[in-house]
Amino acid sequence: MKHTTIKVTTIRIVTIALAASFALPALAAPATGFGDARAMGMAGAMTAVNDDMNTLFYNPAGLSFLRKVTATLGTDALASFNQGLLAEPVLPVVFERVSFVPGITSLHYSNWNSFLGTWVPFEFDSYRAELAGFMKDLGQGGDYDSLDKHQKFELYNKYAAMRGTYDSLGDIGPAELHPRLLLGGRYWGLALTGDYRMDPMAPVGFQGLETGVDLAVTRNLAAVAGLGIQLGPMAIGANVRYLNTSNYAIPFRLRDLAALSSSGLGGTAPDLASLAPVLGYAGAGLESTDSIKAGLGFIFTQGILNLSIYNADILPFLDKANSGLSFSTAYLKAMSLGFSFMPSDDKFAKGKFPLVFSADIDFSNVGDGRLRELAAGIEAGFNAGDYLVALLRIGYGQPLPGDFADMLTVFDPDLGYVTAGISARILSAKLEVAASFPTGMVTKLGTYGSMTAIERGQSFGNLGVGLSLNL
Predict the structure, then answer these.
(1) In the 8-state DSSP scheme, what is residue 27?
(2) Domain for residue 404, yes or no?
């Protein structure tokens, strides 16, 4: 007997696709609140990297080393998830299969039983009550018995995908969108950016398509201006950042998420207009604050070696979070130190070498016992005049909380995170992809089967994608 699979429905994949469909449209940025997918791939070790517009945010002194005027319109998206998404779905994955024997063709349904190591027949009638109720939710009546076997299969797939979305909400972290408009050249830079962070709040109790899913939204709108001046082997630069932060919640139902996913679960077309409140909400419940910060940075260069100092908040007394702190303590909270080795970008040469390599290390938020971090990144590839670019990068970050005296004792690779990324550019179009995972998540991949549900849900990884047009 020959078996041919004519349709495969993997509910967990459908679940992730559904989750991503509402997670990816509203995403956030790295720790600075401004960096792009390149910075994420380098673990944020960008204080001494001064060859693109990221320097406007990480150290404006680097603006004095930019070689030409550039304009960038783009966006970065980031999705967070934990290893719970790799777990077996709550409902069985059902396969529609055709069996051929001489003169006979039969259609049957089964799922793989990993305990028995074999295919077992699947009976949709064991979910009669759930599927009949689901039909009513879809506005298709409740006459489950009138359906043939294939219609029951299609109905079950829709129900399992919806239930999988609900079960995966606890495994999905905040999703973020980071649109940006950048304009700059040697000595100067301007930027308009937006950070939209949408965090699904898992509902209590499954209630079908009417299950409520509130989305907590944080919206940051920023305008940034910076200047840099080169004085021989030294450069100094400053930036000013205006930031408007708003927090609000938007109620969704699983039915809304189904429509947004284009999956047809609700029998309707995607309602993209329902995402408009995420981007421009101004109704009840809006909490909004404004702030202005200024940063000051220095770079000392030997050409291919760069030593950098940057303070992201040189006016700490304007920040209410620093109330009660001495000026020196508040000043050190926002200070970062960086070192880079960039043999392909000699600051005293006329142009860049096409074979790219850089190694960078950062010690950020030096005086902040909560956010202090050590990060390092390496980037390599080629760059043909910024028209044809292919780059690979890896990085590692390690939080160092507590007092300075405790830094060596709190250093623990299992509490750090590893990053990786790629960039590709052809003419003006550029694609960047980056990923960040806790070290523990990476080292335990081979032991997934022995991990508890709590262990799988303790650490979140991130996947970022950036698209931009560069002139």
Answers:
(1) B
(2) yes
Q: Is residue 97 part of a domain?
A: no
CB atoms within 10 A of CB 344: 19
CA 182-278-173 angle, to 5 degrees, is 90
DSSP string, 227-282: EEEEETTEEEEEEEEEEEEEEEEEEEEHHHHHHHTTS-TTSS---GGGGHHHHH--
Query: Whole-model pTM?
Result: 0.77
Spell out the per-residue pLDDT of the chain, length 471, in tens.
Answer: 333 333 333 334 333 333 333 333 333 333 334 468 899 999 999 999 999 999 999 999 999 999 999 999 999 988 887 766 656 677 888 888 777 667 666 778 888 877 778 888 888 888 998 898 888 888 888 788 899 888 899 889 888 888 877 777 767 778 888 999 999 999 999 999 998 888 877 666 777 777 877 778 888 999 999 999 999 999 999 999 999 998 887 777 777 665 554 444 444 444 444 455 555 554 445 678 898 999 999 999 999 999 999 999 988 877 777 777 787 788 888 999 999 999 999 999 988 899 999 999 999 999 888 889 999 999 999 999 889 999 999 999 999 988 877 777 878 877 789 999 999 999 999 999 999 888 876 666 544 445 555 455 555 678 889 999 998
Residue 313 half-sphere exposure toward CB, CA atoms < 13 A: 23
Q: Name residue, tokens 């919206």.
A: 219
Q: State both tokens at 340.
A: 């880079």
* Residue-number span of the structural domain to which 316 is assigned: 15-87+167-470
Confirm whether 465 is domain-assigned: yes
CATH number of the domain encompassing residue 243: 2.40.160
Q: Tell me the C-alpha to C-alpha distance, in Å, between residue 444 and each of 90, 305, 447, 451, 459.
A: 23, 37, 5, 8, 11
- In SS3 terms, 385-448 reads as CCCEEEEEEEEEEEECCCCHHHHHHHCCHHHCEEEEEEEEEECCEEEEEEEEEEHHHHHCHHHH
Does 45 fall in a domain?
A: yes
Domain total for the chain? 1
